Request: fold
Amino acid sequence: MKWIPVIGLEVHAELQTCSKMFCSCPVVDPTLSQPNTAVCPVCAGMPGVLPVVNQKAVEYALKVALALECRINHTSLFARKNYFYPDLPKGYQISQYEYPLAENGILNIPATQGDKVVRIRRTHLEEDTGKLTHIQAEGQAFTLVDLNRAGVPLLEIVSEPDMNSIEEVRLYAKILHDILVCLGVNSGDMSKGVMRFEANVSLRPEDRLELGTRVEIKNLNSFRAMERAIAYEIERQTGLLENSLPVQQQTLGWDDTAGVTYPQRGKEEAHDYRYFPEPDLPPLVIDDAWIERIRLQLPELPMARMRRFEHQYDLPTNMASVLVEETPVAQYFENTVQAISGQDIPPIEAANWITGPLYSWMNTTGQRIDQLKVKPADLADLMKQVQNKVINLNTARSVLIEMLNTGKTAGAIITEENLGVVSDRTQIAGVIRQILHENPVELESYLSGKTTLENWFFGQAMRQLRGKANPDILRDELHQALEKRQNG
Ligand SMILES: [Zn+2]
Reply:
């Protein structure tokens, strides 16, 4: 029997506003701040304090919901989700439950077998918890509590169980990640925990539609952990089902080091949390004018931009998808294309320069594209030098490295180092005469029929001219010289 995986994903994304969801504490970078320095009575859960909704967080959430084509609920409600944990000082988390901000969205993913629509069940606002660090000291176990993250705005995006392979989950998560970054609501820096996943996984027999028993895997903090955990779970459940053993409905953790899932607790039900409407917050009311204002602010999203790049600039899909991954890169590309317009240079050449030499430079130096000393106009200028045959492509590559290092223009480097292509026929003919003179054995065997040696002479002459000869002129002069020898 063949088993089909059925996978749904919950994505928890921090909304990187200036201040927290319900108080004015700053949202701080966990790698740059001391523990418990961004905490006030509200996010520390002191009695008698009152939460106030962060308007910016609502706007960010609306952006995401609209980008996912969700229906925005004009009235949504905050609720208390009650449970005890040391990272939750209030003893409850303010979240949205029965009446979420938005519902019924979609995300298109370009899967191998064709485009696929993943339905978004809901998108809602909540607050993050604090962070616990477990340590061992003097033979004892301690847990440190840092509340800097407690109360940071969090957006939960819940998909329907519409994905049937690891590939589809990977695409879904990646595209969603890129959308959040593109909208400017999340840095996308996974190493800082700004986006976390929970997956629900079940298997169904190929010939039946009803779903099997599902498990939930919590706390998946990277794309890789998510993929590995789901793959592990598919394999584990297949093993159980093939031995006619039941899959238990439960909540699992993921041990990234051991590469296994493990039971965390029995599956909790919604009623275990004793949800009830947050009495300290009024209903969140969003009118049409607000929705339209946000809709007008939406930028072009990565997938739409990718399709446009394919058509408008005649780029292959893989190249277009690399260029749209980050908005600044896409802008850099379009600005470069703008700067070479009217030069009869196809846009794909700009794409080649960016995805080739510039990307490897950025990978090596860790620079972002907006930090490069070479701006789009500078790159365009270099491309024009190649187009106008002032330098050849090889020279251009080394000129670019020098531009990146020094910030000098292509023209300045070419002049200073005398790198211009040699197109002077007299000079080239002189070098060819010298090469033929210095290699009588090769010349003899050429004249007796080994005509492939023409390429060898070409290489020798080019080397003599330090790679700067105009190849067309060099080939032409060489051909003439050899013909003259042949006839005389
Ligand atoms: Zn606070």
User: Anything to note?
Assistant: The chain has a mean pLDDT of 91.
